[in-house]
Amino acid sequence: MLSKEKYVTPKSDYYIHTPSALAKELFLYPTVIGNFRYEAGYELYRNNYTSFLCMYIKQGDCEITTGSIKLAAKAGQIVLIDCYKPHSYRSDNGWEAVWFHYDGKLARGYYDAITNKQGNVISLASDYRFKKYLDKLYFSYKNTAPINETVINNWIINIMTELMVSNQLTASIESASEPVEDVIAFISDNLDKELSIEELAKKANLSPFYFSRIFKKETGFTPHDYIITSKIDHAKYLLLNTSLSSKDICYQLGFGNESSFCATFKKKTGKTPREYRTNF
């Protein structure tokens, strides 16, 4: 739905979630989630909104008040507010934020653990994972994807976990490993395709040269070797656990032809696909 609030731009959107009885009993769950562009002069005060608020500031800045505490938040920071208590947020300049109200039996425990350590305005050493799960949450509603409350609970717990351990790892360590983790998952989901270094580097938002360097550092493989090794490992599984022919496996794993597949398989394992299947 599009917002009709005063001082919120017309294209700002929000989505309501009504949790199931099971979710209320076991999970963390969102009650409303949105992406708002607040205009200069926006101000909101609530005495109670029966939820907790997590707000990621994408652009601009705002001032929040929770209880008697007044704090400033700017782009790149995360705000956590206990909306069961009086609170407000405003800005003279305007800001854009992705936000969600959430609740659940464990919600206060997470809130207290995070804010007791980090405060209500949090700066992450690396916000890569935080934004990844926040985007999953927001776009699942925006794109009207089927809602799986177990998965939604997992995403919110991952968001809370990132806030709890925000400064325990250095940005350099995280920033090197996080894009590689996503690329590895992408490779696993696309073994039937021909994947280029350029495509994988783009997926990681890195240059091909730098991507290849950190990929080798993190995995011990060049990207090309990792792809080939993954395809051959998958081929081994299919040879031993299905009746698929070498030709079928070849095309299922994105090899150009059976001859190329058999040559690559023998180079990696010392056996032809037929020999590998027979010997086991």
UniProtKB/TrEMBL annotation:
It comes from Butyrivibrio hungatei DSM 14810. One of its GO terms (molecular function) is sequence-specific DNA binding. Keywords: DNA-binding, Transcription, Transcription regulation. InterPro entries: AraC-bd, Homeodomain-like_sf, HTH-like, HTH_AraC. PANTHER family: ARAC-FAMILY TRANSCRIPTIONAL REGULATOR (PTHR43280), HTH-TYPE TRANSCRIPTIONAL REGULATOR EXSA (PTHR43280:SF2). It comes from the Bacteria. Residues 181-279 form the HTH araC/xylS-type domain. This is AraC-type DNA-binding protein.
